[in-house]
């Protein structure tokens, strides 16, 4: 069986949030749509990565020739869910020139003085690029809600505002892929302990991570509302089980690659006479002019 056939269901169908989605019963250790095992997945990843990379280069070339299309990958997930691993192992398979990466941490004083979408808009991918958001405007309805950083009526109004804003982006030529990496409470505990046990991982640990972990139920509720209220036809959410890192990487690679395949970017046609240029090149000879 060819490796690609191990995807018995398109991961976009297997992972897309629909009306019946229930976060509480979601299996965070699952591998929806993939019938192979870890070895199969790890073997297939680089193969698919190459295809993704070529498609990305075509999109880039199209953008250089006046194309308006771009892709935006929004990554959300609690600490240790593996956002960094997706950036390194999935996005890392494409040419860095074609990627526009932005991370959103605690807003600076200047960012706080603006509308919450101000800092986000500044990082939108230019045509031809794959934009990657490591955290995003969704923090403004997640941590901001859980930590009560603004009154409830303010964050409640943001779901509709985000939907309208994303719709406009899509209409402008950006394909938005929203991915939430969902790790289990037990697995998060193990990953945090690993960060504490390994000196080469201490830099990744932040004592505030334990505070966030202690608010687990509130974050789950906030995530459930994000999925319920902002998974739209224009910009659906894909909820990806994150306890198996090999699966989340494989699934997101597949979602990106299938999306690019459907966009089907074409190599631009040369705006010069290729045959004439070949002749002109041959005429320059093989020896450097003295
Ligand atoms: P990471 O933990 O992803 O490695 P950072 O430590 O730089 O990255 O920043 C992430 C932190 O920033 C998280 O705790 C997140 O909740 C917080 N954050 C992101 N956006 C906002 C926001 N709009 N308001 C408040 N806190 C935010």
How is this structure best summarized?
This protein is α/β, with parallel strands linked by helices and 290 residues long.
Topology of this protein?
Elements (H helix, E strand, L loop, with lengths): L10 H5 L22 H27 L5 E8 L5 H7 L9 E5 L5 H4 L5 H4 L8 E5 L8 H4 L5 H5 L1 H14 L2 E9 L2 H13 L10 H7 L1 H15 L6 E5 L3 H19 L10 H10 L7
Parallel strand pairs: 1-3, 1-4, 2-3, 4-5
Helix pairs in contact: 2-12
The site of adenosine-5'-diphosphate has 11 residues, from helix 6.
Overall 3D form = globular
The side-by-side strand order for the widest beta sheet comes to 2-3-1-4-5
Give the name of the CATH superfamily.
Answer: P-loop containing nucleotide triphosphate hydrolases
SS-based class: alpha/beta
Largest beta-sheet details? 5 strands, parallel
What is the H/E string? HHEHEHHEHHHEHHHEHH
Count of discrete structural domains = 1
Strand content: 5-15%
CATH A-level architecture? 3-Layer(aba) Sandwich
Query: In DSSP terms, counting alpha (H) and pi (I) runs of 4 or more, how many helices?
Result: 13
How much helix is in the residues?
40-55%
CATH fold naming: Rossmann fold
Mean pLDDT: 97
Which CATH top level class fits? Answer: Alpha Beta
